[in-house]
Design a protein that fits this description.
Elements (H helix, E strand, L loop, with lengths): L14 H21 L3 H14 L4 H13 L3 H12 L12 H11 L3 H19 L23 E7 L4 H17 L4 E6 L5 H10 L2 E4 L25 E5 L7 H11 L5 E5 L12 E5 L6 H10 L8 H14 L3 E5 L32 E6 L7 E7 L5 E10 L2 E6 L1 H8 L4 E4 L2
Helix pairs in contact: 1-2, 2-3, 3-4, 4-5, 5-6, 7-8
Length: about 425
């Protein structure tokens, strides 16, 4: 046994150590404020940290993001440009700040700069990840589209929880798909957290419902359930979509162009924030190229220390992009990246929101009301149409005698116009 004594280094002392502790405290304040969407407090914490380390690129990038989330776009743009002009120091800023610069240019209506910075971000990501482990694309043409077998052409969704923000657009998508995508079948992967009434409505509208409750999840994160359609031997072509984004005529024509093309995969970018290599709800493909995704997802998830709400996109960029990039019809309205094609001409879009784009969040509005219930209790409510028929019913937690819920615009608009009404239940 060694008799050598272990020596603990002395605690850091002096002004430098004090500043380091203050810097860490400001960084912690920033992180906590961002988590609760208190962007003004986050900016204040970043400003305090920058007084200690004015040239810290990571803090500058975080500061710019907090400013952008407050809609202080000019100031955010100024800070992002400081990072951009730092050249060698940019690496300290992380991997997402260039996406932020492209986004803020979108808010400032600078399309040339959106294209410049967004394309640069995508090209840098492709350089980092595009040469990863990939499967070779077959020399043969992709399988023919089986128009007479919609059960082999799947539009796959994930749905969990009881929020109308996701449940109502999911039901609407199944209804709309019967018109826009009659040669396809919607499939919804969900668990028992989805209200039984919503599950019934999905089935009534024609969706396949796959129950992922309990052991069926088998180490696959809910955000990624929809990717299981890729492994189904009964599926020839698949589209992976977000439950809260509505199908449209613009998407319909893009998919038709892909079906007629020689490409094995399809991807769409239709907004200035679409700077991810694969947007988790805007891609599709043909079965027979990708390896089974379930074991890949299980292994990838088991190695993650912290699974965020972007886990699906991170997985796709690392595990799927190297293969997809070899044969993809990429419809891109903004960035001219990776052989981009413009969206084809299409009939008028039925969703008259003024800012609709492929992949846009339908639940950008909400409703609220007073309640006699105590804080933390659930207030049940229903939306009734002009005939008094129940359109949907949910419950929302009460906070300071107020309940609220995010709802898709196609429910909010008739309520706001006075044609429909919200009725409190028990």
């Amino acid at each position: 046994m060694s008799t050598k004594k272990s020596v603990r280094p002395p605690a850091a002392r002096g002004p430098a150590a004090q500043l380091a502790r203050q810097f860490q405290a400001h960084a912690q304040r920033f992180t906590e404020a961002m988590k609760r969407s208190d962007y003004a407090s986050a900016s204040q914490a970043a400003e305090a940290a920058l007084k200690i380390q004015p040239g810290n690129m990571g803090v500058l990038a975080d500061y710019a993001l907090s400013l952008m989330r407050q809609k202080r776009h000019e100031k955010a743009h100024e800070v992002y440009l400081r990072v951009y002009k730092a050249n060698g120091g940019r690496v300290q800023a992380g991997s997402t700040w260039l996406d932020g610069l492209a986004e803020v240019c979108g808010w400032l209506e600078r399309p040339d700069d959106v294209r410049r910075y967004g394309k640069e971000s995508l090209e840098q990501a492709d350089a980092r990840l595009g040469q990863g482990q990939a499967v070779s694309i077959p020399a043969s043409a992709p399988p023919a589209f089986e128009a007479n077998h919609p059960e082999r052409n799947i539009i796959a969704y994930t749905l969990f929880g009881g929020s109308p923000r996701y449940c109502e657009p999911a039901v609407k998508n199944v209804e709309v798909a019967a018109d826009l995508f009659p040669q396809w079948r919607c499939r919804v992967y969900l668990d028992d957290s989805v209200p039984a009434a919503v599950q019934w409505r999905l089935r009534e509208a024609g969706a396949q419902v796959v129950d992922m409750t309990g052991q069926a999840q088998d180490g696959v994160h809910p955000l990624m359930w929809r990717f299981l359609a890729v492994d189904d031997p009964g599926v020839t072509r698949f589209l992976i979509r977000d439950a809260d984004a509505l199908l449209s005529e613009r998407e319909q024509m893009a998919v038709q162009e892909w079906i007629a093309s020689p490409f094995w995969f399809h991807h769409m970018r239709d907004y200035f924030t679409h700077t991810e290599l694969i947007l988790a709800g805007l891609w599709g493909g043909c079965r027979g190229v990708l390896p089974p995704l379930k074991p890949l997802m299980q292994g990838w998830l088991s190695r993650q220390g912290d699974v965020t709400r972007f886990a699906d996109q991170i997985f796709l960029r690392e595990a799927v992009w190297p293969t997809l990039r070899q044969s993809v019809l990429n419809h891109d309205a903004f960035f001219d990246f990776h052989g981009a094609h413009p969206f084809p001409a299409h009939p008028p879009i039925r969703w008259n929101t003024g800012s609709f784009h492929v992949g846009s969040n339908a639940s950008f509005q909400g409703i609220r009301g007073s309640s006699s219930k105590a804080d933390g209790e659930q207030q049940s409510w229903a939306v009734l149409d002009e005939h008094g028929v129940t359109v949907c019913a949910y419950s929302s937690p009460v906070r300071e005698k107020i309940w609220s819920a995010d709802l898709p615009f196609f429910l909010v608009e008739p309520i706001a116009a006075g044609r429909w009404k919200v009725q409190l239940l028990s």
